[in-house]
Amino acid sequence: MEGVLHFLQHTGFANVTIPHIIMIAVGILFIYLAIKKGFEPLLLVPIGFGIIIGNIPYVQGIGLQLGVYDEGSVLNYLYFGVLSGVYPPLIFLGIGALTDFSSLLSNPKLMLLGAAAQVGIFITLLSATTMGFTLEQSAAIGIIGGADGPTAIFITSKLAPELIGSIAIAAYSYMALVPLIQPPVIRLLTTKEERVIKMKPPRAVSKLEKISFPIIGFLITAFITPDALPLLGMLFFGNLLRESGVTKRLAETAGKQLIDIITIPLGITVGASTQATTFLTPQSILIFVLGAISFVIATASGVLFAKLMNFFLKGDNKINPMIGAAGVSAVPASARVVQTLGLVENKNNHLLMHAMAPNVSGVIGSAVAAGILLSYMMKIVG
User: Fold this and answer.
1) What is the spatial distance between Cα 235 and Cα 92, in angstroms, rounded to a whole number?
2) Contact residues for 363 (Cβ-Cβ < 8 A; gap 6+)
């Protein structure tokens, strides 16, 4: 009987709490949204199941190495890639190999929309500091507005590792919820006349331009923000593999097998880091609220800047302000949202290729913003 009682005392049923149940429900919700609604399933399924894994209750302090925070556990070893910032550059390598920058090269002025969307990062940084977060924590929270999970993890691992679970979950959640969050903001800030603007087709981009861009782009951005070197280097290297024409196998590996392999431990361990005992706190809830504000501001900034640009453009050079919302780094989700909204207003108005320009520039912009924040924070701390 003593053995039976000992076994019963160590079951999850004996140690479960209301917070555990809440977090398991959140994990199931993520999986539901991924499967039923199609919201970024490659991200939400691993993260959702990771949340469930991380919230199976067990007796701690008896030498069992099970959880993501238990030194020596399998999950802890996998989580090292998150804490050390190893996974994000590898994800960026895959993104670079998958990304076609032709739309940006055909209309370089749209890069400004990707830059404008980063305003949300800095406004949220200031807001977070007024709510009791340290400057380093505020910088990490602000980057959520870029809707770039790898960049959020990278900068948080350097500045505020104690918040990495909350910030990573918030960043990936808002990336997945782009189809729900962005349309109301876009409609609120644009008129019917603006939403039906048809943009002239992008010009053809030469092979030389495509090959030169990752080299020149890397040199310019890396010299501006050397602190973002791991992200920018991998992003542009992956794109060079794609465009060179002589490294097809490497580009396919980076854009398919490698990014998939990294996404699995990244998603599982980020999800598992949301243990109820450490995650369900007022601080985490506030981070989610600030992250939502940051994302909305980023979307609004891109749209409003596009409207401003139209004051200086004439005729068929005018741009549809909706593509400004694609300035956040959620590639290609934001561009698809703009395409869908464009077709609702006019069945012949295809905006996807135009929206991809600010969308891919937003990836570069968020990495540059992260580098600027790292450089500034390191100087302040030093």
Assistant:
1) 5
2) 95, 99, 114, 148, 235, 329, 331
Residue 8 has pLDDT above 80, yes or no: no
Tokens of 269: 């361990």
Beta strand segments in the chain, E: none
Residues sharing a CB contact under 8 Å with residue 287, sequence separation 6 or more, in sequence order: 141, 144, 163, 166, 167, 170
CB atoms within 10 A of CB 349: 18
Please write down the HEC assignment for all residues of 124-190. HHHHHHCCCCCHHHHHHHHHHHHCCHHHHHHHHHHHCHHHHHHHHHHHHHHHHCHHHHHHHHHHHHC
Q: Tokens for 92?
A: 């960026």
By the 8 A CB rule, do 291 and 141 touch? yes
Taking the whole predicted model, whether its pTM rises above 0.85 is answered as yes
Q: How far lies 264's CA from each of 84, 158, 285, in Å?
A: 17, 22, 26
pLDDT at 61 over 90: no
Residue with tokens 């076994």: 7
pLDDT higher than threshold 90 for residue 237: yes
**What confidence tens digit (pLDDT) does each residue in 65-121 have?**
778 888 888 999 999 999 888 999 999 999 999 999 999 999 999 999 999 988 888
Task: Provide the 8-state DSSP code for 202.
Answer: P
Cβ atoms of 325 and 185 closer than 8 Å: yes
CA-based R_g, the chain, Å:
22
- The rounded distance, in Å, linking the Cα atoms of 128 and 145 is 13
Cβ–Cβ < 8 Å for 356, 326 = yes
Q: N- to C-terminal Cα distance for the chain?
A: 60
Supply the mean pLDDT for the chain. 89
